[in-house]
Amino acid sequence: MSQMTPLPSVVKSPSPARRAWQRFKQHRLGFGSLVLFVLLVVLSLGAELISNDKPLVARYEGHWFFPIVQDVPETRFGGDFESATDFLDPFIVRQFDKPGNFAIYPPNRSHHRTINYFAKAPNPAAPSADNWLGTDDRGRDVFARLLYGFRVSILFGLALTLTGVLLGVLTGALQGFYGGRTDLIAQRLIEIWSSMPELYLLIIFSAVLAPSTWLLLVLLSLFGWIGLSDYVRAEFLRNRQLDYVRAARALGLSNWQIIWRHILPNSLTPVVTFLPFRMSAAILALTSLDFLGLGVPPDTPSLGEMLSQGKNNLDAWWISLSTFAVLVVTLLLLTFMGDALRDALDPRKESQP
Amino acid sequence: MSDKPTLLDVQDLHVSFGDKEVVRGVSLRLARGEKLALVGESGSGKTITALSLLKLVPQGRVTGRALLTGPQGAPRDLLQLSEHALRGVRGKDVAVIFQEPMTALNPLFTIGDQIAEVIELHQATSRAEAWTRAVALLETTGIPEPARRAASYPHQLSGGQRQRAMIAMALACQPQLLLADEPTTALDVTVRTQILDLLAQLQRSHGMAVLMITHDLHMVRRFADRVAVMENGVLVEQGPVAEVFANPSHPYTRKLLDSRPVRDVVEAAPGQVLPQLVEAQAVQVSYPVPQPGIKGWFKSGRFVAVKSAQFKIEQGRTLAVIGESGSGKSTLALASLGLQPFEGTLRVSGQAWRFNAKADKPLRRVVQVVFQDPFSSLSPRMTVAELVAEGLAIHQPGLSEAQRQNKVIDTLRDVGLSEAQFPNLLGRYPHEFSGGQRQRLALARALVVEPQVLVLDEPTSALDVTIQKQILTLLQRLQRERGLSYLLITHDVEVVAAMAHDVLVMKDGDIVEQGPVDQVMRAPRHAYTKALLASSMFDTAPQA
């Protein structure tokens, strides 16, 4: 590919992708959604710095500690046990209140697995100064669980989208490009594959194997690429008989070069348009499975598990309402982005500057 | 100007889309029973002018006046009518025929249904009566077996028959004015004249006026009483056809009339022996097609697209393949390019296609291709530099970056594209060029590997007439300078006359006639060649 890069003296005009990006930026709702979404993702990636039960920095009797990255035994702070320090223990808190000692805590003093043993109300506790969005039925902080749960959902959605795109583009491209018998056989295989009952397989596998996020990702990936492969196949079937592909063939380009350089870039529009919707579908799938108890292992923070708790504790409105709000905002942002992307990539607007 | 009463009086028509004005102050008068041709190149605003009269341009802002004098007295301004009142005018007083009859007819209804619907809508007759009228209308348009055809769906008819059905639908309510938007452009040449004659004949018998929108000057000469020429949304000239053609006053009209391609090629000297670059013997191309019924489950039939073609192309000469759509001429081009498997032998500079990427690679450099549609023959996501240099990377991998760039710039200059005209030429994308310029790009892309044979698959038929002439002139120059051989695929007799040394006439996969261009054009032997020549060269008057 190196020989195809333009010489330094050549200034490129805005490429079609770049012009689509310009159009996307003009779409205020979509672009705003993207900015907000990226902000939320960045914040959730730094969840340990926002919501954690360990101080970021601590100074105790002239020594510096970074409990967020190191485990410090309680005995270092005058406690009785060799185990890792519980920084929320009133005794430890008092130790740091002594002159010369201090600890800087994250804004919210709860990790997603922190149980508030010192809650003033029975679990689930209503929102208070300690737990901004209350606690769940095991005394864990709802805000912390939402933050970490959001991160798990997003990363899971991204991973599932990525594997889906890779598999879907690969199979769709091969079917569409070679067509004929290859296409016929592959299509039949896909039909058989897609008629497997996905949900039953998940239930069976989660009964047989130890449930884990990775297992879930693999299982969902096995079925998540089919819709996309159909789109890519159709685009390839359309593009491969266009004149520029024939002209490339007449120039003597290999199949691989034609696929990679000519057809693929011109076939990705539906893939890109599909991405946000695919991602919101992935998040929703994970949430539903968690809600049913077939998803991630019990300890993992998850929006679906929160919803299920909300259902079991209907009077604890703070659980269901806040989880619902996070889900709605996430899915809405993705949908707005998808809409804007679809507009930006609309071939009818392609000709406009 | 005719002394008949005025039917349509368009005054100072403006149409704009957003802040872009595409029709700027057009004034036209059309008398009862008059045939007016509105001529212009693509983008001149001729179609918008006609369609805006019936408010058929959805997003356009239309100002001005369009007075239509009804059968009973007072003229009405079409542009002021309500949508409801306009619906009464459309189809009844003013009917429209579109360019592409396949898309203008609803594929889910029989043509009889669609014609009867118009009759029912405007004349409130019973269904049975409307159907009878529809069949009668189909008969007047010369469709064989009209009663059976009325029950056919659009896809069951040929292009010409579909256009006849469209005409029957337009005539259903005996309109006073027929707007015909390029009614013959999508049809084959021999069918074109038939449709045109039918329109003229029906115009006479119905006494309606016709506003014909076209880019084809032959059609104007054959059909119209008066002609109006549009350029960039402005009406530059109008008058009686004979007058305008004999004595064009506006430079643009002169340019249009002068756009017939001129023959300017190195003629074959008698007795001269030139090296043969392409030799084809008994080339046959066939496709598998599904067989109907249960038999089709087990074996497929074969459709023969090209039947035992035999031809040769000498160095520096042009072989033109002429035929209508479906005659197999493009398939023959693909076979010559080694892109379509075939039976028989086809040697290019002595070597046969082997359909093996490695073995065929040297041949790929010898034969290159330019396709018809400049909008689909360039990948929209590659820059000019990437597009043109692509072939070099394969066939001359030893070149340095600087050598390669120089070669790209030289080739682009050779086809008439330079940095001076287009700043930052190499970094541009295809969408920044017009159709003619894209065709030059496609030409540069093919020429950069220095081929000896160029397959030109309808290289100019998607272009406007004036651009077509420029491209043909360029091709002639390149042939002279580089000694190129052309395999020219076309349906246009004029292009053949201007370019070819030898001609090959194809019909339904058969080569019905072949020989030197003079012989075939002057003294055609086969009936089909005669029909083809008669329908495309109906006016052989010297150029204006």
Topology:
The complex is a heterodimer of chains A (353) and B (544).
Chain A: H1 16-26, H2 28-45, H3 47-50, E1 57-60, E2 63-65, H4 90-97, E3 102-104, H5 142-178, H6 180-194, H7 198-208, H8 213-224, H9 226-240, H10 243-250, H11 255-267, H12 269-292, H13 303-312, H14 317-344
Antiparallel strand pairs in A: 1-2, 1-3
Helix pairs in contact in A: 1-14, 2-14, 5-6, 5-8, 5-9, 5-12, 5-14, 7-8, 9-11, 10-11, 12-13, 12-14, 13-14
Chain B: E1 6-17, E2 20-31, E3 35-39, H1 46-52, E4 61-69, E5 75-77, H2 83-89, E6 94-97, H3 101-104, H4 111-123, H5 127-140, H6 146-149, H7 159-171, E7 177-181, H8 189-206, E8 209-214, H9 217-223, E9 226-231, E10 234-240, H10 241-246, H11 251-257, E11 276-289, E12 301-314, E13 318-322, H12 329-336, E14 343-348, E15 351-352, H13 357-366, E16 367-370, H14 384-395, H15 401-414, H16 435-447, E17 453-457, H17 465-482, E18 485-490, H18 493-499, E19 502-507, E20 510-516, H19 517-522, H20 527-536
Parallel strand pairs in B: 3-8, 3-9, 6-7, 7-8, 13-18, 13-19, 16-17, 17-18
Antiparallel strand pairs in B: 1-2, 1-4, 4-5, 9-10, 11-12, 11-14, 14-15, 19-20
Helix pairs in contact in B: 4-5, 4-7, 5-7, 7-8, 8-20, 14-15, 14-16, 15-16
User: Can you count the beta strands of chain B?
Assistant: 20
Helix content of chain B: 25-40%
Spatial arrangement of strands, main beta sheet of chain B: 6-7-8-3-9-10
For the report, how would you describe the main beta sheet of chain B? 6 strands, mixed
